[in-house]
Amino acid sequence: MSEILFTNAGVLDTAAGAIAAGQRVLVRGGEIAAVGTDVAAPAGARVVDLGGRTLMPGLIDCHVHVNAHTADLAGLGDQSPAYVAVKASIELRETLHRGFTTVRDPGGADFGIHDAVAEGLIDGPRLFFGGKALSQTGGHVDMRPRGRSVHDDHRCCPGLGLVCDGVDGVRKAAREQLRTGAHHVKIMLSGGVASPTDRIDSTQFSLDEIRAIVDEAQAANRYVAGHAYTARAINRGLEAGVRSIEHGNLLDESSVELFLEHDAFLVPTLVTYHRMAAEGAEYGLSEANLAKNALVLDAGLQALELAHRAGVNLCYGSDLLGGMRRHQLQEFAIRGAVIPPADVIRSATVTAARLLGEEGRLGQIVPRALADLLVVDGDPLEDLGVLTDPDTRLKLIMQGGEVKVDRLST
User: Which of 38, 62, 123, 206 could form a cystine bridge with 104, CB 3.0-4.6 A?
Assistant: First the structure.
């Protein structure tokens, strides 16, 4: 069993928001075996002196779409699944090399791409997938233009979702995703930016339909993630048992109360609105999509600040599409304008791990956690820019005890 001992490390405690200097961390068989100042080097172990650099857990992005190599989501569903899978494998490798050792895909990724990563066929973050996101007719993943009456929800179409209606219809759709091994079920609770016919301020699915989906997820010991912008849409979802709200740009005080009451999670994705405003047209967004983006762009930071002040569980999300995904780390800088660095880092580590049901296994450097580790130059608690410049500041990436990137000598 291979063993690596990191010495002279500044270990970032994500729960406490503090760095302990002079630490030694032993990695054995893909897990962290010991942490402390007096951990001995086992016979035959590789010893790596970090020279005081920061050792921290791998990052977790709770909202990515690995299939979305274009922002033209309507056109994506007509592309070759083989082509989209190859593009996804490239994006997964690039995501890992940004320091994200785990991601959650709430719409598009399936058991095939999950298994390819898990089996080591491609390099990428460990992947928590939801399969196809569920939408009502005319909802956020109904990508038909107004003049088209037919749609193809075949499993092999590489689009991000499927359309289902009625309590019986949504139950079957949820069961179909869960039978493939989905870690959660994603539903559309409101309109969205990239869809062609719905309004941002609409609510989607009836309460009976939402409750039916939640029932199916809970029966499978899984949870529901809900796309929502307005307080009205958010609150309907939380009251019906939705576990995480994606985006939430237009939430209000009543929403915050429900988050706290239900111990639910909020996954803001602020960077995607900034990048869509700047370069969305280049990557396939229509003028109508860009107009909807403007409705939620500025409100997102205020919503984040309100939720943070109240103590809502916050998780890191990016939700970038196409070539804009290269800006994935900029979410740190955007959040850092209104939230202390320690709390921003928690959203991408320990809190994200709790949403994924992996508390104590991901997002922390503690015994029996998976050895997903980053070595960075600098103190991210003082400067989040340490995390946004991987080419110069990210010196080592380890995933499951295996070194994926090693720049310690450069």
Answer: 62
